[in-house]
Amino acid sequence: MAVSVRIPTILRTYTGGESEVSAEGDTLAAVLDDLDASYSGIKGRILDEAGQLRRFVNVYVGNDDVRFLDELATATPDGTQISVIPAVAGG
């Protein structure tokens, strides 16, 4: 299943400056594995040491936050757009 992954500015050093890349996988976990195979180290910036989404990183499959779906087991149908969005804090 080919999907499109939107990469935030802070992680574009891993993708050679690309803001959107393609990856394969039928779940978010599989997509992140494929992404890391092509762009070594990027998965470690999205997942913590326990293999869960980092607290301040939001991931959307389509328009839905995966934390309200099946997290890493969220299905990623062919053609889906995945967005990785770092949380912004401040005041």
Folded structure, characterized:
With 91 residues, this protein is α+β, with helices and mostly antiparallel strands. It is built from two helices and five strands; from the N terminus they run E-E-H-H-E-E-E. A five-stranded mixed beta sheet has the order 2-1-5-3-4, with helices on one face. Strand 3 and strand 4 form a beta hairpin. The mean pLDDT is 95. This is MoaD/ThiS family protein.
Write the SSE topology.
Blueprint: E1 2-6, E2 20-24, H1 28-38, H2 42-46, E3 57-61, E4 64-65, E5 81-86
Pfam families: ThiS
Protein name: MoaD/ThiS family protein
Organism: Nocardioides astragali
Question: Which terms summarize this structure?
Answer:
five-stranded mixed beta sheet; 5 strands; 2 helices; 91 residues
| Number of contiguous helices | 2
Helical/strand content category: alpha+beta
Oligomer: single chain
Write the H/E string, N to C: EEHHEEE
Beta content = 25-35%
Q: Mean of residue pLDDT?
A: 95
Rg value: 12 Å
Strand order of the largest sheet: 2-1-5-3-4
Poorly predicted regions are none
Percent of residues in helical segments? 10-25%
Task: Count the beta strands.
Answer: 5
Q: Terminal Cα separation, in Å?
A: 40 Å
Q: Report on the biggest sheet.
A: 5 strands, mixed
Rough shape? globular
Quick synopsis:
The protein has 91 residues and is of the alpha+beta class. The chain is built from two helices and five strands.
